[in-house]
Design goal:
mainly alpha; globular; 2 strands; 7 helices
Length: about 140
């Protein structure tokens, strides 16, 4: 998910013209990937998805439960609510659904973006994504 800063820049550049949908793809062979996905969604519940996203990238590979809880405190989240969410697997169904979707389209790389069905694999600069978005907006008559 290292595309985060560029994705945020794109969203800011096209308010009311694009919709961002984020899907989780925690690697099954990476320690703590699943709980990190839970943590990002638990933070989203409290309006701090991007802040947690950025912190997880900056602090990786230190993504164990205790570290995630400390990050929640650092971000000013309700730690009890956050901990309850990750411990209960509140977002497990969403994550499982995202994993099934990834498998159904043979997706194995992150980040992978889809812009109106056009697949973009790997980190790409702002201008690269902007060109595709402009082409799609033009094709849609926007």
């Amino acid at each position: 998910m290292a595309a985060g800063p560029v994705v945020k820049q794109i969203v800011q550049a096209y308010p009311d013209k694009i919709r961002l949908v984020i899907k989780n793809y925690p690697y099954k062979y990476r320690d703590f990937a699943r709980i990190a996905a839970e943590a990002s969604l638990a933070a989203m519940d409290q309006g701090k998805y991007w802040e947690m996203h950025d912190l997880l990238l900056a602090r990786s590979p230190k993504l164990d439960r205790a570290s995630l809880i400390a990050y929640a405190g650092e971000l000013g989240l309700d730690v009890k609510k956050f901990t309850g969410s990750i411990d209960s697997g509140k977002h497990a169904k969403n994550i499982d659904s995202d994993l099934k979707l990834a498998e159904s389209i043979d997706l194995y790389n992150t980040p992978t973006l889809y812009i109106n069905g056009r697949q973009v694999v790997g980190e790409r600069p702002f201008e690269f994504l902007k060109k595709i978005i402009e082409e799609e907006l033009t094709a849609a008559g926007r």
